From TrEMBL:
The gene is maa_1. The lineage of its organism: Bacteria, Pseudomonadati, Pseudomonadota, Gammaproteobacteria, Enterobacterales. It holds the Pfam family Hexapep. This is Nodulation protein L. Keywords: Acyltransferase, Nodulation, Repeat, Transferase. Gene3D superfamilies: Hexapeptide repeat proteins (2.160.10.10). Residues 19-69 form the Maltose/galactoside acetyltransferase domain.
Length: 195
């Protein structure tokens, strides 16, 4: 990872359309305003009565406009932007999930996230001098079709998970996972191939 800093903090980002490896400052006014918009939507979504299905569906579509049909998100749910999450049909997100989507999170069809799964696209520089400036950087996450991610798993920035993969509960996925495998552990590794 290149740890070259941008020339100055006010070289800022107007709209949150960060791409792989982009650096940004969370305190930028445009970023803070966009974050506040998302927090307001999340507050309404997470505090809507479960029997108010029409209101919940409208808020979910406003929060996650790039998701396919049959998407179900159980509250509480948290994300950074929402509009950077692109999920296919029949995506299920169980209770307590967190998706830090400051760049693209691409989720295939028929994907299931267990309770309290965390997906991160944002990180901090390793160099302490750079980190102390408050700068952060992004890397996208891609999850293939028919993937099941077990509860309390963590998916780190830049990871790609292949089609038909299963991630065991409590795993920390630090690198790419191929198609049709069961992976687990800290850090996650391939445990078994799926026939």
């Amino acid at each position: 990872m290149n740890e070259k800093l941008p020339p100055c903090a006010d070289a800022g980002v107007e709209r949150i359309s960060l791409k792989d490896g982009d650096y940004f400052f969370p305190a930028e006014p445009a970023i803070k305003a966009d974050s506040l918009r998302t927090k307001s939507l999340l507050h309404r979504f997470n505090h809507t009565d479960p029997i108010e299905t029409g209101t919940r569906l409208r808020l979910m579509k406003e929060l996650l406009p790039e998701c396919g049909e049959g998407v179900s998100v159980t509250t509480p749910f948290h994300c950074s932007r929402g509009y950077n999450i692109r999920a296919g049909k029949n995506f299920y997100c169980n209770v307590g999930c967190v998706i830090l989507d400051l760049t693209d999170v691409t989720i295939g069809n028929d994907v299931q996230l267990g309770p309290q799964v965390n997906i991160y696209t944002v990180s901090h520089p390793i160099n302490p001098g750079h980190r102390s400036t408050g700068i952060e950087y992004v890397q996208p996450v891609t999850i293939g079709d028919r993937v099941w991610i077990g509860g309390k798993s963590v998916i780190l920035p830049g990871v790609k998970i292949g089609n038909d993969a299963v991630i065991a509960a409590g795993s920390v996925v630090t690198r790419d996972i191929p198609d049709r495998v069961i992976a687990g552990g800290v850090p996650a590794r391939v445990l078994k191939h799926i026939q």
